[in-house]
Design brief:
Chains A, B: One of its GO terms (molecular function) is DNA binding. Chains A, B: This is Transcriptional regulator. Chains A, B: It holds the Pfam family HTH_3. The structure is a homodimer. Chain A is mainly alpha-helical. Chain A has one domain: Orthogonal Bundle (434 Repressor (Amino-terminal Domain)), CATH 1.10.260. Chain A has five helices and two strands, in the order E-H-H-H-H-H-E. The first copy, chain A, has a two-stranded antiparallel ribbon. In chain A, helix 2 packs across helix 3. Chain A is globular. The mean pLDDT of chain A is 96. At the A-B interface, helix 4 of A face helix 4 of B. The structure holds a DNA duplex.
Chain lengths: 65, 65
DNA sequence: GGGTAAAGTAAAGTAAGTTTTACGTAAAGG
DNA sequence: CCTTTACGTAAAACTTACTTTACTTTACCC
């Protein structure tokens, strides 16, 4: 499942470490997420949408990939 | 995390078995989901929104519980 | 009462998300 | 050069989503 986490993160000038910390997850989780290595839990998806001020549907595209 | 899966399901006259089958998961998964025993994967959340023709944010409330 | 459909519980097992630790690389600055 | 910052990889350990199987309960209907 494709996602736009990296785009949103760098648009805001955040490092992977920053994002991991504000989300309360490890940096490894961010790296793997951005690389599309797995699909996050719904809870993490909601946190991401919260941080970026958008909806889950704006961050993830279930159609692609 | 609170959800409105049971409401949406029974509004449509579906049984837990029906929903499980159309989602491609086990009935146990539906039971546990409706009981709020765990948070689903994002992929399952997208499938649910697809079946019910709504957005994830309409099915799950990350604030409550 | 017996039969069946829908929902529930419980436990053990498998699959996948997430963490932790440790090391590698490339770019930027002093 | 050397250090620091940001990003990457890899593997083992842990946690939790999800499956499978088997059995229970409730209600409705004949």
């Amino acid at each position: 499942m494709k996602n736009y986490i990296r785009d949103n993160r760098s648009e805001r000038g955040m490092t992977q470490d920053d994002l991991a910390e504000v989300l309360g997850v490890s940096r490894q989780t961010i790296i793997s997420l951005e690389k599309g290595r797995y699909n996050p839990s719904l809870e993490l998806a909601f946190k991401l949408a919260g941080v970026f001020g958008c909806r889950i549907e704006d961050l993830f595209d279930p159609e692609e990939e």
